[in-house]
Design brief:
alpha/beta, 11 helices, 13 strands, globular, two-stranded antiparallel sheet, TIM Barrel, Alpha-Beta Plaits, 305 residues, binds iron/sulfur cluster
Length: 305
């Protein structure tokens, strides 16, 4: 295979990841997503562009950033550090002078060759654990050329490959990457289309069509199901998940992703609204109830995160 080297925008690289497919993995998180899930754990993944991030807890109020920013992004009012994210032109000057790493630019351009070289550092761990490379995001197919090239290079290097996808991409793109993907971690978010639109900004129709397409073409699939108490943990949705699991023989497992408000602080750091500020994390009883209900509906291959 002769994959062209191409550049993509990456916001995180996690080595020794244990939660994004089998074994020990390196997970590459790409920027850009066509959905806008209200509970998103990675709000910094949504826009396909770099962003300034400010962590108030790390700020020592030294005011060095105020001195270097030409756009008055940083100001202090009554001792409180305000950040005007909309005015930021991403020069990175404030990041350079910040002594406490309270500021950072999220998103960095890498070539697929650079990423593969990073991933291959851990090849022996992958071999000993049946692990490999996972591409996540954001939505990996929002950077289709980069993702396809990376998958092809990974297969050339003999790696197991997984992709975490929201299912909202062109049919042909799934068919194009299928030969290079060993495992699809495929999100299912709401059975009811109205609810799907309300909480993700898009219809679930294309997502369900693509699940059907991948299943009919022999893909290995793990369904990943974020469950948010009071939002999408209805009987209807749980029975829908169990129904998909029964319908498609190549679904290896259903992974319940219990709500965690990790997106709250990250949203604050990048100056975007987080709708579930007051929602508590899913407790153990709730998680047990979800599992019991899924089992009642005939789904037994479940794990919970
Ligand atoms: S330079 Fe860093 S520590 Fe100093 S005020 Fe700005 S954000 Fe805070
Ligand atoms: S699909 Fe994933 S990355 Fe995109 S908005 Fe939803 S949770 Fe966030």
């Amino acid at each position: 295979m002769n994959a062209t080297d191409t550049n993509g925008l990456v916001f995180d690289i996690q080595r020794f990841s244990l939660h994004d497919g089998p074994g020990i993995r390196t997970t590459i998180f790409l920027k850009g997503c066509p959905l806008n899930c209200a509970w998103c754990h990675n709000p910094e993944a949504k826009p396909y562009k770099q962003q300034l991030s400010f962590n108030e807890n790390l700020c020592t109020s030294c005011m060095e950033c105020v001195k270097v920013c030409n756009n008055t992004v940083h100001s202090f009012v009554n001792g409180k550090h305000n950040v005007n994210f909309d005015a930021c032109e991403l020069s990175g000057k404030c990041v350079e002078v910040c002594p406490s790493e309270a500021l950072q630019i999220i998103g960095k351009e890498y070539s697929t060759n650079e990423i593969i070289n990073i991933v291959l550092r851990d090849k022996k761990y992958f071999e000993n654990s049946n692990g490999g490379l996972t591409i996540s995001g954001g939505e990996p197919l929002a950077q289709f050329k980069f993702t396809k090239s990376l998958l092809m290079k990974a297969k050339d290097a003999g790696l197991h490959t997984a992709i975490e996808t929201c299912g909202f991409a062109k049919e042909q793109q799934y068919l194009d990457i299928l030969p290079y993907v060993d495992l699809f971690l495929y999100d299912i978010k709401a059975a009811e289309d109205k609810k799907h639109i309300e909480f993700t900004g898009a219809s679930n129709k294309l997502i369900l069509l693509n699940l059907d397409l991948l299943s009919n073409n022999g893909a290995n699939i793990i369904l990943r199901c974020p469950l948010i108490p009071g939002v999408n943990d209805s009987e209807e949705h749980l029975s829908f998940i169990a129904g998909l699991n029964k319908k498609y023989q190549n679904i290896l497992k259903v992974e319940v992703m219990a709500f965690h408000n990790i997106g709250r602080d990250k949203s604050k750091n990048i100056g975007v609204e987080y709708k579930f500020n007051d929602k508590p994390n899913a407790d153990e009883n709730t998680k047990r109830m979800w599992i019991a209900k899924l089992e009642d509906y005939g789904c037994t291959n479940i794990s919970i995160g």
